Amino acid sequence: MDDFENVLAGVGPRLRDLRRRHAITLAALADLTGISESTLSRLESGGRKPTLELLLPLARAYNVPLDGLVGAPETGDPRVHLRPVTRGGMTYVPLTRRPGGLHAHKLVISPTAGEPELRTHEGYEWLYVLNGRLRLHLGDRVLVMAPGEVAEFDTHVPHWLGPDNDQPVELLIIFGKQGERAHLRARPA
């Protein structure tokens, strides 16, 4: 058996193991993915070869990368190769790569001239100041935050963030476009 056939033969048992670890029935998985129960059963037993059209919804349902389903070989290099994006004096370094859900970024904001322009958009944001001093305009409030301080807010509230002085500010940001919250607070009974 060559490497390609070994990879394909390993997909079915991996899918069965994932389904059992998630404690989900074939019927529930079929509802979640739009793939018929019989097709899911044949995939798990090896009676059907996996295709990209079948594996993508399964990877999404199990919240795992596609290479995790097919048992892609280790690259040998554990480093994450980040691709920063710079726009309007802000450098975003994506720390998550999966579609949908919460996204984490390291954000470096350079000092800029001019008045803050408050904006709104869909979502919910959680931020942690790593370095520098952050000035956060949130509605009619202005907060100055130091390293180690955290804020979270609904991004429907007009907001702006930037350095509080002439030095860059570095943040860790977790953002959910659909309003997902980064964490839940325990409330006293």
TrEMBL record:
Q: Mention any Pfam family matching this sequence.
A: Cupin_2
- What organism is the protein native to? Kitasatospora nipponensis
Q: What is this protein called?
A: XRE family transcriptional regulator
Q: Which PROSITE patterns match?
A: HTH_CROC1 (PS50943)
Q: Which residues cross the membrane?
A: none
Report whether Ribonucleoprotein shows up as a keyword of the record. no
Q: Does the keyword Lipoprotein apply?
A: no
Q: Which UniProt keywords apply?
A: DNA-binding
Q: Which residues form the HTH cro/C1-type domain?
A: 15-69
Lineage of the species this protein comes from? Bacteria, Bacillati, Actinomycetota, Actinomycetes, Kitasatosporales
> Could you tell me which Gene3D superfamilies the record lists for this protein?
Jelly Rolls, lambda repressor-like DNA-binding domains
